[in-house]
Each structure stands twice: as structure tokens, then as C-alpha cells.
């Protein structure tokens, strides 16, 4: 929602929570420290929409027979519990962010190693090409060329297997870090720890 709709006058709050405006005003005076409020034009109360549930809760507690002091105590306890829960969630989010950053750094390192390996392989391939050119210039027998080609194919096959294995491992790591189930497992581990 935009900023204009977040703050409402008492009359609008009254309609939304189905409580008479006079009662909402009384709640604003008595329980204002538990409501997000400010003064608008002509010093009229404006109440933030995030406080609608609190107003309903006040009404329910009073209807259940709680006295003014008891309602304040219950609201304070609920507020403190919510603050504690929000703090725990923030700590869990921070821990998850740290773990995700570790995984990202690990993937970056793997990518660097793979790039280095590919560069080395490219350099070796250049050497093999030079060797092949030299062999052709010297008119090496076909057996020697076949043997060199076999070695090159073996090398290329091993290189391709290694590259494929490395790329599969990287994809698995990426899937794990993007997989909501894995994140849920992480949250489950975090909750079991607390």
C-alpha cells in the first residue's frame, strides 16, 4: 500500500474494526503507547493500519472482563514476545545470509580453479598442436602419429570427464543453495539448535 493509505483517521479505523469511534478514541488515549499513532491536521488522531489488530485485541480483552491494568500488562507481554521473536528471526536470517555468502565464495573459488584448469588445458592443447605440426613437417610415420593422436584423444577424454565432473559438482552446489528444501532443512537445523 502507498503511504497515504497507511495512516487513517479515527472514523476510518472505526469502520475497519467495527468499533464505535468514541471507543476507538478512548483506546487511543488509554493504550496509545501500544498503538502506532500520530497527530494529523487539527490535532486529530491518525492511527497506522498496523495497529488495527491491536485495537481488536484490546476490545477482546476488555470484553473478556480484563481490567485496564491487566490489558496493558497483556499487551506489554505480547509486545515483548513479538520483539523477542523478531530478534530471533533476524539472527536466523543473518546466520542464513552468512552461510549463503560462504557458499557463494566457495562457488567463486571453484570457478577460479576451473578457469585456471581450462587455461592450462588450452596451453597444453597448443603444445600438442605444435607437436603435431612438427611431426607432420618431419614426415613422422603413421604409427607414431596414431600413437600421438591416441594420447591426445585419451588426454581430451580425461580432460572432458574432469570438466564434466567439476561442472556437475558446481551445478549441484548451485541447486543446493537455490533449493528451497535445502533452505528449509537449514531452517529446521537452526530451529533444532535454538
TrEMBL record:
Coiled-coil region list: 118-165
Name this polypeptide is given: MerR family transcriptional regulator
Domain of life: Bacteria
Originating species: Oceanobacillus luteolus
UniProt-listed Pfam families: MerR_1
InterPro entries named in the record: DNA-bd_dom_put_sf (IPR009061), MerR-type_HTH_dom (IPR000551)
UniProt keyword annotations, A-Z: Coiled coil
HTH merR-type domain location: 8-77
Amino acid at each position: 500500500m502507498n503511504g497515504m493509505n497507511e495512516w487513517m483517521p479515527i472514523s476510518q479505523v472505526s469502520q475497519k474494526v467495527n468499533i464505535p469511534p468514541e471507543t476507538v478514541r478512548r483506546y487511543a488515549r488509554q493504550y496509545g503507547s501500544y498503538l502506532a499513532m500520530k497527530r494529523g491536521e487539527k490535532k486529530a488522531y491518525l492511527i497506522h493500519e498496523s495497529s488495527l489488530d491491536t485495537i481488536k485485541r484490546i476490545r477482546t480483552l476488555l470484553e473478556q472482563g480484563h481490567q485496564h491494568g491487566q490489558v496493558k500488562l497483556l499487551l506489554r507481554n505480547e509486545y515483548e514476545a513479538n520483539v523477542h521473536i523478531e530478534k530471533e528471526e533476524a539472527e536466523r536470517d543473518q546466520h542464513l545470509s552468512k552461510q549463503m555468502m560462504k557458499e557463494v565464495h566457495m562457488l567463486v573459488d571453484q570457478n577460479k580453479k576451473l578457469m585456471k584448469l581450462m587455461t592450462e588445458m588450452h596451453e597444453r592443447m597448443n603444445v600438442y598442436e605444435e607437436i603435431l605440426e612438427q611431426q607432420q613437417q618431419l614426415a613422422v610415420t603413421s604409427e607414431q602419429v596414431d600413437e600421438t593422436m591416441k594420447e591426445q584423444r585419451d588426454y581430451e577424454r580425461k580432460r572432458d570427464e574432469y570438466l564434466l565432473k567439476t561442472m556437475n559438482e558446481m551445478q549441484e552446489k548451485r541447486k543446493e543453495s537455490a533449493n528451497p528444501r535445502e533452505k528449509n532443512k537449514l531452517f529446521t537445523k537452526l530451529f533444532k539448535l535454538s
